[in-house]
Amino acid sequence: LAKTTQPISMDSYEGQEVNITCSHNNIATNDYITWYQQFPSQGPRFIIQGYKTKVTNEVASLFIPADRKSSTLSLPRVSLSDTAVYYCLDRQGGSYIPTFGRGTSLIVHP
Amino acid sequence: DVKVTQSSRYLVKRTGEKVFLECVQDMDHENMFWYRQDPGLGLRLIYFSYDVKMKEKGDIPEGYSVSREKKERFSLILESASTNQTSMYLCASSSTGDKDTQYFGPGTRLTVL
Question: Which member of A1, A34, B19, B37 has the lowest number of beta carbons within 10 Å of its beta carbon?
Fold first, then answer.
């Protein structure tokens, strides 16, 4: 099974809600799921982190089901400035190595 | 404001040269990481360090080595650069208590001719 997978790209329009889902097929039992945002010519930056259920901050919400095999990043009412690549991060079972997904390129249209 | 800095934004080297990429963080973080980023492949971990003089291999350590002599500084070394090492290199750091909240530098775009 692939480690940590997410869609390659998504398109949306300003004002819509966007949900990006990541699959965590072999996630470590006690580790968090973390999401990052990356703009062109910049390093990724932390958005949100959770372990189970729902977490919300000023930027996004993160939904994690009880089995923790997936996570969904929810961006409410996106704007053009939300156009970026979004990465999920977890740790594989038995490993200390952080594993990023390959990233989802979100394009927000006017 | 927390900061991770990398020695160069752009670097051009020739095949066979020894290349040093430097990373410095000012947050007193225990953990430091080197990733390479390629289109369609996302971020892949090369090496990480959880303490001074300690290092662990990531997913793609071949062709690279690292050095961490001081807590704030983590160096990535390409002993003999090759064209397939042309990439974006990103450094990050995190604290032991919050290890997956990583702070990234701006990246170094390395081109090997």
Answer: A1
